[in-house]
Amino acid sequence: MKYNVNEDGFYGQFGGAFIPEMLYPNVEELRQKYLQIMNEASFQEEFQNLLEHYVGRPTPLYFAKRLSEQYNTKIYLKREDLCHTGAHKINNTIGQILMAKRLGKKRIIAETGAGQHGVATATVCALMGLECIVYMGEIDIERQAPNVARMKMLGAEVRPAISGSKTLKDATNEAIRDWINNPTDTFYIIGSVVGPHPYPDMVARFQSIISKEIKSQLLTLENKENPDYVIACVGGGSNAAGAFFEFLDDENVKLIAVEAAGHGVDSGESAATSVLGKIGIIHGSKTLLMQTEDGQITEPYSISAGLDYPGVGPLHAHLYDAKRADFEAITDNEAMQSGLNLCKTEGIIPAIESAHALAALAKRTFKPNDIVVVNLSGRGDKDLNTYINYFKLSE
Amino acid sequence: MNRIHQALQQDKKLLSIYFTAGYPHLNDTVTIIKELEKNGVDMIEIGLPFSDPLADGPTIQESSTIAIGNGMTTQLLFDQLKDIRKSVQIPLVIMGYFNPMMQFGMEKFCQKCAEIGIDGLIIPDLPLAIYEAEYKALFERYGLHNIFLITPQTSDERIQQIDTISDSFIYMVSSAAVTGSQSGFATEQFAYFKRIADLKLKNPQIVGFGIKDQVTFIQATTYQKGAIIGSAFIQFLSKNPIKNISKFVKSIR
Predict the structure, then answer these.
(1) Which among A6, A299, B11, B177 would be 20 to 30 A from A272, CA to CA?
(2) Is the pTM of this model over 0.95?
(3) Phi, psi values for residue B39, rounded to 5°
(4) What are the structural domain ranges in chain B?
(5) CA–CA min distance A163, chain B (Å)
(6) For residue A359, which of A259, A243, A210 has the smallest C-alpha distance?
(7) How far apart are the first and last CA of chain B?
(8) Is-catalytic flag, A377?
(9) Amino acid A271: pLDDT
(10) Pick the catalytic residue: A74, A89, A166, A382?
């Protein structure tokens, strides 16, 4: 288990829990108990049951015939877009809400950027009858009105983050501050493989259902468990962590992590953290992050709201550093064209985040017999306005 | 004996003031320090601004954002403080988050602090275990005190651990909150203040978070050695000229 977290919460030199003392009791309680709770039979039973009957798992591993012909290889799409609420995010929120309940917490907080994790959190809170407060950057609230409405319909309170740059990183700061202010009854459901240990590991484990299913599905479809490639997009990196997890120690499986280049890696408007980031501390984790020379965290850019996080999960920083995964940077335009291409070739409208992963198919040459799994992390309903404006579809 | 120990030995309750370097204006740092000392403040926490100050509330987040916008940097702070010990005698502590220090280089940061005559550091997001394993020797080499926080949720066992590793004072967070968010102390805080006093720690405690006027200062120092005012002072600076700092200090004691 060379690429897994060590006892101190580090992946190589990345990770840890760089948190103020105010958070220590909560994070320490979680650190001591998370593995034990996750391994309890009753927890697993409830988790698996909800994944099957509520989320709709297993999601299909779909052989994309026409897309495969285009690239002259064998492409499978892992259909996380078919999960309840439209993306992989709910695998994690189901897991974390069960964790919160077992820790006796009554109040749930979360951060959200585009609103997908906020919706997935509001959904499971409604399911469990728990109070839910979602922090969202003031600017994102304006940009993502439908998701704000969804969260409200699901009974969550959406609180604007009005500090700093008023986007995802500030929503995360506000959620952390809320946790500091409410240290006993509150559980913080983090939406990605970021934050202080044990969050990156816990979220990766909840998302690892993706790669577990890929393995068993490939065994049925191809009579072998391992693909040649797994491709996934990375913002914070939870869908990639889930899609890579079971293959990490199998070096024959090539892992491709796809970041958002925005207008181009060198354009000044990008979210390609592995290229543009330096090692530092963000939201309690030592990882690669985009920052000024003076250590101030900068605001990334991508057309995809789910990928514009200035950091990357510590697992991914380690995979990059150890050269276990290849990192590709895909521009807005490449992603949008690939998204549209999937609509036309396979009849699937992907989330723009997932379209970045699809665009990476054009970045290398595959053999005709290669098995390439692309994690289709979410569906494109939420991005319809962006597609409409980008391709001027209403004209 | 160093400046922090000297201050702690005085037979009075200590008033410590926090301000954000580079706020309200880029070059106010030295003027504010001198004005605070002139008016009888016992210790100063100089805030090194960070874009994402997790443990702070809206007031200090705002002053930090403005200071960074004004052009404040770590190097500039050291430049501003270069000659500070020619005129200022009271203890000076830098409070900042770990990332900007890491980018500056921790050894270089400590070296600069020592050159200038900074007495200690408060780094809320540098955990105890990492400090002990990776930075303690460095801090000691440069004669810097690392000041740890405790909160009402900190276990007695961990408080003892922090007391053992500390060699100046313990920063006692008054209640479960970020800075600047309280409105007066309640029975539960007094119980906490007394509980900590009864532990008879080797390091005196200075209370921070929620102290904003004379009443809260007196309350916070009932059992403890001193108190720190941050957000209330920043709010004062946002509305008043620096020359009026005497009014603020007099309103506290």
Answers:
(1) A6
(2) yes
(3) -95, 15
(4) 3-252
(5) 7
(6) A259
(7) 27
(8) yes
(9) 95
(10) A89
